[in-house]
Amino acid sequence: MSCLFQTPPALSADIYNEGLYLTGGGSMLRGLDKRISTKTKLPVYVAEDPLRAVARGTGIALKNTENYTFLIR
Questions:
Q1: How far apart are CA 28 and CA 23, in angstroms?
Q2: Buried b (16+ CB within 10 A) or exposed e, 14-52
Q3: Residue 35: which of 59, 4, 70, 1 has the closest Cα?
Q4: In the structure, what pLDDT confidence band is assigned to residue 70 with cuts at 50, 70 and 90?
Q5: 4 vs 27, more confident
Q6: Which of 5, 10, 53, 70 has the CB geometry, 3.0–4.6 Å to 47, for a possible disulfide?
């Protein structure tokens, strides 16, 4: 909850509109998504293939670095 309170407004709006997506092994804990949803009053989803989701997303970002140059200083 404290993390959500510290989130910048633009990102908060996206989270409010789209919900939270859980990835990684911890996301596979039974009932975790429902507990977080109950506490935050937000929709919570477990990513498809959560164990590989971060690695796949990182690979996509690395193949498309020209789209993410604003993040590199």
A1: 8
A2: eeeeeebbbbeeebeeeeebeebeeeeeeebebbeebee
A3: 1
A4: low
A5: 27
A6: 53
